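Try this one yourself first.
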C-alpha cells in the first residue's frame, strides 16, 4: 500500500498529543533554557573529547549523547565546539534554581578555560568558522554538514559559528500547545527576542526546509490538534538527512523514524517532545546580566498565556 500522508499525520498527531497528556507537568507553568557558548578559537574533535573526559572527572555522568551534571543540567558539545547547557524545567518561583544553574555554568566554563585554554564566549556569532573542523563526527552531524554545504550559502557558519539561547515553556495539557506556540511565534519578531540581523541572514541562507518558520494558515494556530498536524505535515516535506528525499518518500516511513526526523527540523519555534515543551530559538547567546533581564521579561509574558 502506498504511503497515505493524511493517515500518517492522524496517527502521529494522536501519539504526540498522548505524550503531552501523559508526561506534561500538571502544576504551575514550568520553564527551562538551553544556553550555548562559542569557543574563542577554533578547536577540533580531539579537544572536545578531552573536555568531555575532564567534565566526567569534574563530576558529570556520561549518558548517550550528553553529560549529566550534579545540578541536574545536561551538557552537550555542538559541531563547532560550542558548549551547550540544558537546564531542567522548573516553575517560575524557582529563581534560586536559575541562579544555581548559572553559577554552575560560570564555574564550568572557567574550569575549561584554565585546563584547556578555551574561553567560551556568550555571543551569537563569530565569523570565519564555516571551514573550521567538525567537532561532532556522528553520522547525523556529518550528514547535516554535507547537506548544509549545498542547500544554502551560510549553513556551515550556522553549525559552527553561531550560538543561541533557547527559552522553553512547558506544555501542561494538549490544549496548551496552540496558545503557547502562537505567542512564541509573535516573540520571534519582537526586538527583545528576535535574532540579530547577522544571525538572521545566516539562518535564512541555511536550509529552507529546516530553518525559519513553517508557513501555516493563521486559523491553524488556534487549535492544538490542527496546529500539530500542520507541523507534522511540514516535517514530512523536509528532506531526510543523508538523502535528498522528503520523509514521505522514504522507503518505509514509520512513526519512530519520523519522530527522530522531527528533531532535525530546527525552526524558530519548535516542539520539544522530551519536555514536553515549546522552545523559542531566536535569541542570540548573551552575557548573564542580559539573560536575567530577558528571562524575567519572557516569563512575565508567558504567564499571561
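Now uncover the answer:
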Amino acid at each position: 500500500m502506498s504511503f497515505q500522508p493524511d493517515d500518517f499525520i492522524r496517527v502521529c498527531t494522536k501519539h504526540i498529543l498522548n505524550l503531552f497528556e501523559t508526561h506534561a507537568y500538571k502544576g504551575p507553568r514550568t520553564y527551562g533554557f538551553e544556553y550555548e557558548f562559542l569557543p574563542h578559537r577554533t578547536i577540533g574533535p580531539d579537544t572536545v573529547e578531552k573536555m568531555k573526559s575532564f567534565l566526567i572527572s569534574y563530576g558529570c555522568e556520561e549518558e548517550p549523547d550528553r553529560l549529566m551534571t550534579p545540578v541536574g543540567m545536561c551538557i552537550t558539545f555542538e559541531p563547532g565546539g560550542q558548549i551547550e547547557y540544558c537546564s531542567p524545567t522548573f516553575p517560575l518561583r524557582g529563581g534560586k534554581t536559575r541562579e544555581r544553574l548559572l553559577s554552575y555554568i560560570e564555574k564550568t566554563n572557567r574550569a575549561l578555560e584554565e585546563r584547556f585554554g578555551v574561553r567560551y564566549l556568550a555571543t551569537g556569532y563569530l565569523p570565519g568558522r564555516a571551514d573550521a573542523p567538525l567537532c561532532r563526527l556522528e553520522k547525523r552531524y556529518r550528514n547535516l554538514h554535507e547537506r548544509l554545504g549545498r542547500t544554502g550559502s551560510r549553513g556551515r557558519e550556522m553549525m559552527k559559528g553561531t550560538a543561541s539561547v533557547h527559552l522553553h515553556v512547558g506544555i501542561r495539557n494538549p490544549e496548551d500547545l496552540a496558545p503557547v506556540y502562537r505567542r512564541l511565534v509573535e516573540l520571534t519578531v519582537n526586538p527583545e527576542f528576535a535574532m540579530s540581523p547577522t544571525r538572521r541572514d545566516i539562518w535564512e541562507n541555511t536550509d529552507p526546509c529546516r530553518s525559519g518558520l513553517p508557513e501555516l494558515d493563521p486559523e491553524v494556530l488556534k487549535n492544538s490538534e490542527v496546529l500539530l498536524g500542520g507541523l507534522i505535515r511540514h516535517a514530512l516535506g523536509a528532506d531526510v538527512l543523508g538523502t535528498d528525499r522528503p520523509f514521505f518518500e522514504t522507503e518505509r516511513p514509520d512513526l519512530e523514524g519520523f519522530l527522530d526526523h522531527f528533531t532535525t527540523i530546527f525552526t524558530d519555534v519548535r516542539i520539544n517532545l522530551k519536555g514536553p515543551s515549546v522552545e523559542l530559538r531566536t535569541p542570540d547567546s548573551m552575557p548573564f546580566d542580559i539573560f536575567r533581564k530577558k528571562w524575567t521579561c519572557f516569563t512575565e509574558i508567558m504567564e499571561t498565556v
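Discussion: The beta strands are 30-39, 61-63, 66-68, 74-77, 83-86, 90-91, 120-121, 165-170, 269-272, 277-280. The chain has a mean pLDDT of 94.
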